[in-house]
Amino acid sequence: xxxxxPGGTTAPPSAAIRLFDDAEFRWRRSGPTPAxxxxxxxxxxxxxxxxxxxxxxxxxxxxVLKPVGYVPEHNWVCEVYAAWDSDAVxxxxxxxxxxxxxxxxxxxGWGAHVFVPGRDTEIDRELARIREAxxxxxxxxxxxxxxxxxxxxxxxxxxxxxxxxxxAEPEGDHGTLDVIRTLLDHLAPVTAPGQAIHxxxxxxxxxxxxxxxxxxxxxxxxxxxxxxxxxxVTDAVTFRGAPLAQLDDWETxxxxxxxxxxxxxxxxxxxxxxxxxxxxxxxxVTHVERVRPVVDEVLxxx
Length: 302
Fold this sequence. Notes:
With 302 residues, the protein is of the alpha+beta class. It folds into two domains: 22-116; 121-300, Aminoglycoside phosphotransferase (APH), C-terminal lobe (Aminoglycoside 3'-phosphotransferase, Chain: A, domain 2), CATH 3.90.1200.10. The protein has ten helices and nine strands. The protein has helices at 22-29, 34-39, 71-82, 127-140, 156-165, 174-184, 226-239, 246-249, 256-276, 287-300, and strands at 48-49, 58-59, 63-67, 110-114, 119-120, 194-198, 205-207, 214-215, 220-224. Helix 6 packs antiparallel against helix 9 (256-276), helix 6 packs parallel to helix 10 and helix 7 crosses helix 10. The model is unreliable at 4-9 (pLDDT under 50).
């Protein structure tokens, strides 16, 4: 399959990309609504913010509630998880709301799943465990069909994916666009077939003694399977201080160098769009500065 940059796309234009405003952030931090608490059977008196959940994720010790970013994607992921039969990797067990008035997997913008035991991986010394979990997860989902919602999802990272794969016109300040265009100049066709993949596996693996690793917080894409690991390893060297030698350690298949380029474009495409709306925050503020040596190393391999 030729994954070069075809012209034309039916995806939403960049003007339609949705960014959270201050009201959205306040709503997320305010916690689950009373209707969501009732429908999911949460113990209201025990509800508290979950450590590591960016202030948006809540738990009563048994269940976890978090805002739903995009309802069609959430419903699709919940259906996959509800039918999960792999013993190689754990995933969250989704919870369907109680009550005839709720016809999908969310209530007033909130979804729920059973608490997943485990701790975050220590990325500086457990990259191998993350890769093992990624490989097991992607082997378990390799036969899933492409979900239709990918054609219309309109978040910044979906836009970044289209910059990397579908010739979407990038946005951003001069520095970001300079790096993006340098990468675009080095694109070549990718022949590996697509499948459902996790677009942010690096920080979303949990480990626990005596249990398989767990994969959580799944943003869905449909790209060559090694793209997931290309995103993970370029994120590790860009944002987490992993050595550039990891790009070789994670190498998979003849398309690897092209996938590294597209992984960098996927992230930079989103950052550029957010920068164009003056909404950069956190690690994205220094993204371009951090990524330049990674870009130089990746392009030296081409």
